[in-house]
Design brief:
Elements lengths: L2 E2 L4 E3 L3 E3 L1 H11 L2 H21 L7 E5 L3 H4 L2 H11 L7 E6 H6 L1 H13 L4 E6 L16 E4 L1 H4 L5 H16 L3 E4 L5 H9 L4 E2 L10 H12 L2
Parallel strand pairs: 1-4, 4-5, 5-6, 6-7, 7-8, 8-9
Antiparallel strand pairs: 2-3
Helix pairs in contact: 4-6
């Protein structure tokens, strides 16, 4: 259905380092925007390469960090990238974490409006991670809400499942598409199917893969 671009650090001595360890350092020293710009361009390069090789392309989401909104014009930068690589905006989906909306309401509202006017879909990432402002759902125009893994982990707990049920019903009443993140078990998948959750993402389907391994995965399962 779609992909999400992620960052992992393959350290020569320590092996695979997960983002929980190095992203906060990059945010603190101001280098996170350089990483984001690198990843955004690499995603566009991959999409262009797959199009040129005749593959059927699905959208790839990219993440916008808090620092990006202060240091660059995010909508203009992303628009220039899709123009540079001659790809349709629908193939690049923009994820902005819920906490940024809570802190920079006016700025993010304007940015989301510009991105959507350029043809990009915009996702609220990590919904339910502790910053939720339900009133914002009435005025902000998101294409998709991504439920944080902390909500998915409630599955199996009676009260937690009730909370998840009512959250999804509320979002669906606003006409929003719902993606569940961090799904790892078949029980979670079945519960989310019963909630009519639109998309499900997580280790249940695949761990994060380097580009070359992802391409091998696709060839193996599609015969391409």
């Amino acid at each position: 259905i779609s992909l999400e671009s992620l960052a992992r650090w393959n350290h020569p001595e320590k092996g695979l380092v997960f983002p929980d360890y190095f992203i906060p350092v990059l945010e603190k020293n101001g280098l996170i925007t350089e990483l984001d710009l690198y990843i955004w361009e690499e995603v566009c390069k991959s999409i262009r390469s797959w199009i040129d090789n005749g593959y059927n392309i699905v959208p790839i989401s990219i993440n916008v960090s808090r620092a990006d909104i202060y240091s660059i014009d995010v909508p203009k930068t992303i628009k220039k990238l899709v123009e540079k690589y001659d790809i349709e905006p629908r193939l690049l989906e923009i994820e902005i974490t819920e906490s940024i909306y809570a802190e920079q309401y006016d700025t993010i509202t304007e940015m989301v409006g510009k991105l959507r006017s350029y043809g990009f879909k915009v996702f609220m990432d990590d919904f339910g991670s502790g910053y939720s402002s339900l009133s914002s759902l009435n005025v902000m125009h998101f294409d998709t809400i991504k439920l944080d893994k902390s909500l998915i982990d409630y599955i199996g707990d009676r009260n937690g499942e009730k909370l998840l049920l009512h959250i999804t019903q509320l979002l669906q009443s606003f006409g929003m598409t719902i993606t569940a993140e961090g799904v790892e078990t078949s029980d979670q998948v079945e519960f989310l199917k019963n909630l009519h959750c639109d998309d499900i993402q997580g280790y249940y389907f695949s761990k994060p893969l380097p580009v070359n391994e992802f391409e091998d995965f696709v060839r193996k399962h599609t015969g391409l």
